[in-house]
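Bench notes, afternoon.
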Amino acid sequence: MVQMMEVLNVIAIIAAGLMVGNELAIAVFVHPALDRLPDDVHLSAASALARVLGKYMPFWYVLVFLLTLAEVLLRWYLWGRWPVWIAVSAVLWVLAIVYTVATLVPINNRIASWAETTPPADWKTFRNRWDLLHRWRVALLTVAFGFLIVGVISKQ
């Protein structure tokens, strides 16, 4: 059972780390690069990214949450202790998912639809709003990832 926990630790940290790295790369590199492109190129690239990431990222978010929840439940079952650090991480992942669905998904869906429709004249306002909200999400995910790592390392 201990070996299974070690495998779960590795999988959870890799999945969460890759997700946080992906979201950080979008915030720090991808979207700032899009902002320097001509508007027509920026618009079509943003729309394409919104469609692709909007399709696959929900599964990744849920996967990381489920892995973190599995960490909490297995540690509680095996050692009879509530793993506080990892439990806080799981709560933060849930908050990130709720925050994403409530704030970012509606904007993302609008941006994704611009490939088939005429974008509004103020389309950059939507992009800028998404970028600002996304930065807050990256901060939340980074903290959640940190709590996960501390929880795994501390064995609590």
